[in-house]
Amino acid sequence: MSETIPYANLLILALVAGFILLRLRGILGKDLGNDQPNFFNRAPIEKTDRDQPIVQLHEKLLKPKPKEEADPYLAALGDTPVASGLKRIKEEDPEFSASEFLEGAKLAFEMVFDAYVKGDKDTLRMLLSDALYKEFSGEVDSRAGEENKRETTLVSILGKDITQARLEGTTAHIGVRFISEQVSVMRNPQGEIVGGDPSALQHIEDEWVFERNTHSKNPNWKIIET
Hints:
α5 (98-118) packs antiparallel against α6. The chain has a domain at 72-225: Roll (Nuclear Transport Factor 2, Chain: A), CATH 3.10.450.240. The longest helix has 22 residues, at 7-28. A hairpin with a 2-residue loop joins β1 and β2. The chain has seven helices and five strands. Strands 1, 2, 3, 4 and 5 form a five-stranded antiparallel sheet that branches. Helix content is 38%, strand content 25%. The chain is an alpha+beta fold and 226 residues long.
């Protein structure tokens, strides 16, 4: 037979539970009117002045002022006719740098050499003037009809130097002398060497002339003489 809880005991338990609820209400505060805890319903925090930068600078002021870069090659020339010519070119085109030009001229030399050996007319057309391109293109076609093929390899460029610089109107002309090491052999249709020595380095000196309109938006130079 199960035990029953007397009515008086139930009344006492109800009073105790009510007392506890009243104490909790006093400690935690009034009901917020929803079931979610308060930290899930926080309003977005508005930015205060402390969130803003102390000093707001204009975008242009944030950028450092460009410094005029030195031109080592031009500075090393001193007071020479070549230096005078290069300075006149720079007056027409303030972005011109003799040092950077020489590096570009070296790259152009290597590209033309490689394109000529491979018969790459597209690259030749891009780098050469129209008149000079016709000469190179004709030689490429002529070599293609030969039974034995001349194979020339550019080993290295030993030196490069500006030999002349002048300005005609707005057109700049700069001559560059290249000293390179090359190996040249002749091969028959079977690929056998029938002429030349693959171990013999030849020192070759070339002088090329580059041309560009200093007022043109196109930064590329054309090779007009080799």
